[in-house]
Amino acid sequence: MILILRSKLRNLEILTLSIVFIFGASILHAQEIKQPHRDKKKSNRVTGQWYDYGKIVVLRGVLDTVHTFGPPNYGENPETDAKVIYFTVNLRKPISIRGNPNDEFNRDTIRGISRIQIKLYESEKLLEVLGKRIKVKGKLWRQSVGSDYTGAVIDIEKGDIEFEER
């Protein structure tokens, strides 16, 4: 009886230590996230150049497509959800976008973005340069509707995408 009780207590101690370790690691991880980077070089690699929502910007990267699920349930019911393909620019260097506390839709700051969805209503032009280095000019917006699949999108006009030679 004492042996069984010791065994149960031992298992309880291990379980308690495991919970403390997991909880402690979570707290440590959260503290690491909250603390700002002290090394400016390291910080710039993570956050990259800063931009503002609603301003015209020029971004460079490689044009890619992403296949995902769309309405009505965005992947919860793959048999009935629409299959969606959207265009992105995979940026050469990550960027960050400053939120605007006075703008309901663009309030959030996003750091270290390396892929941005391209919103272009005549996407045939994009098929011509798929997989190539491109330069896009447009306005940055926070993800706001169901057809926005990345945290931020760039809204471009028909003539504001160029193929870049190496």
User: Numbering strands along the chain, what is their spatial order in the largest sheet?
Assistant: 2-3-4-6-5
What is the name of the CATH topology of the largest domain?
OB fold (Dihydrolipoamide Acetyltransferase, E2P)
Topology, number of strands? 6
**Structural class label:** alpha/beta
Provide the domain count.
2
Order of helices and strands: HHEEEEHEE
How far apart the termini lie comes to 77 Å
> What Rg do the Cα atoms give?
23 Å
- Major pleated sheet: 5 strands, mixed, barrel
- Overall, the morphology is globular
In the predicted model, the low-confidence regions spanning at least 5 consecutive residues are: 1-44
> What fraction strand?
35-45%
Helix content: 25-40%
Mean pLDDT reading: 75
Name the CATH class of the largest domain: Mainly Beta
The assigned CATH architecture of the largest domain is: Beta Barrel
Count of discrete alpha- or pi-helical segments spanning 4 or more residues: 3
General description of the model:
With 166 residues, this protein is an alpha/beta fold. The protein has 2 domains: 1-35; 42-163, Beta Barrel (OB fold (Dihydrolipoamide Acetyltransferase, E2P)), CATH 2.40.50. 27% of the residues lie in helices and 40% in strands. The protein contains 3 helices and 6 strands. A 5-stranded mixed barrel has the order 2-3-4-6-5. The radius of gyration is 23 Å and the shape is globular.
